[in-house]
Amino acid sequence: MKIKCFKDDIIDGLQKAAGIIPSKTGAAYLRTIWIKAEDAAVTIYATDTSLEFTGKYTAEVLAPGLAGVQGKAFVDLVRKLPAGPLQLSLDSEGKTLSIEQGSRKYKLPTNDAQWFQNYTPYPAEGSVPWAGDFLQELLDRVAFCISDEDTMEAIACLCLKKAPQAPAQAADAEPEQVVEICGLNGHQFAMVRFRNDDIYSLIPDEGLLLHRKYVQELRKWLAADAFELAIEDRRLFCESGDGSETFSMPIASYQYPDYYNFLSRLTGDNTSRLTVNRQDLAESLDRLSIFNTETNRCAFFHFNGERDLTLTAQGQEIGSATEQLEVSFQGELKKIAFPTKGLLEILSHFTSKELTFTLTGAEGPCGVTGADDAEYTVIIMPMKIVEETYYSEEEVR
């Protein structure tokens, strides 16, 4: 194998490949990035046995062939080289890959080519287009709610499913095809609803679950450009718009919790509603967080009539804080406590000037929505008030 290419043509793909493979632990073949030269192109392969990445880039192929190198070292070397042409060549015995750039010369040991296994090809049929920037926005809004505990199975996954179809408004109208994308971690839940006939038709009837770690890699791979999605053999495939890169991951087979059970409580009787300026609340909570400790990590909301909200926090060794905000409030609830940092993070994912909190009780789920954040709902569980300074977290399941 012998090729000439430009660093800028391959470095992005190499870094995506390096993001998949383990850096130090694991079998040597899993830490390998494969480089294949053929047909005036160089193809880069990487896998951790679950995720698979393939990228095909322009190169001058002087001799076709295949080489597998220790991925992290190779990518680090190329990344630190200046922009310009590179020459990669495999020795006659296939045991050493030489990297040359002008007077700079490096050699890396290669792995046995028999370790290389063909990667799952992108499905020939059934792919649908999607906008990368739109999916990135969706993931930003729900991924923070996915559980980071691998043992939690389903709630360690992103859920993408078809929303229940409401009856058509007119006799000749088709029911709306709405997709829901959500994350749940036991005490928070986030969901965005959107309309896309292509994506709706692609999703299996039982829904689609992607493990959190795969979602994280997908977010790194996504660009603003349009890309293609496909599903085959319990794998989700993503292909760049120009067809040069393919990224695929397994679909989990867990049963996702029925989140309509707690969503329905937001429309039940005896709820209270708080409408508050998002920025004012965020700034107050940020200051109150100074007074939180490991044992006292919440902010109290005290409702004093229809226009007045008092926020308090206290730390045994730090002191106490009290602030008042002008709000709109309707309901009978007098007091509730939320984890300060959790609520601050939720506020950061909204863009609306004002947010509405639908409160189902001092220990019931609280829904957060905003007029300018269409079809976006976040639920946070309040902290159970045991004493004035001791709290325990309730869970949503």
Topology:
Blueprint: E1 2-6, H1 7-20, E2 32-38, E3 41-47, E4 52-58, E5 60-63, E6 65-70, H2 71-80, E7 85-90, E8 96-101, E9 104-111, E10 128-131, H3 132-142, E11 157-162, E12 178-184, E13 188-195, H4 197-202, E14 208-211, H5 212-221, E15 226-232, E16 235-240, E17 245-250, H6 260-263, E18 272-277, H7 278-288, E19 298-303, E20 308-315, E21 319-326, E22 328-330, E23 335-339, H8 340-348, E24 354-359, E25 366-370, E26 376-380, E27 383-385, E28 391-393
Antiparallel strand pairs: 1-5, 1-7, 2-3, 2-6, 3-4, 4-17, 6-9, 7-8, 8-9, 10-15, 11-12, 11-14, 12-13, 13-26, 15-16, 16-17, 18-22, 18-24, 19-20, 19-23, 20-21, 24-25, 25-26, 27-28
Helix pairs in contact: 1-2, 7-8
Helix-strand makeup class: alpha+beta
CATH topology description of the largest domain: DNA Polymerase III, Chain A, domain 2
Shape: elongated
Number of strands: 28
- The proportion of strand residues reads 35-45%
CATH-defined superfamily of the largest domain = DNA Polymerase III, subunit A, domain 2
Q: Count of helices?
A: 8
| Order of strands across the main sheet | 5-1-7-8-9-6-2-3-4-17-16-15-10
Radius of gyration: 26 Å
Give the CATH level 1 class of the largest domain: Alpha Beta
Give helix % range: 10-25%
Query: What's the overall average pLDDT, rounded?
Result: 91
| Major sheet details | 13 strands, antiparallel
> What is the number of domains?
3
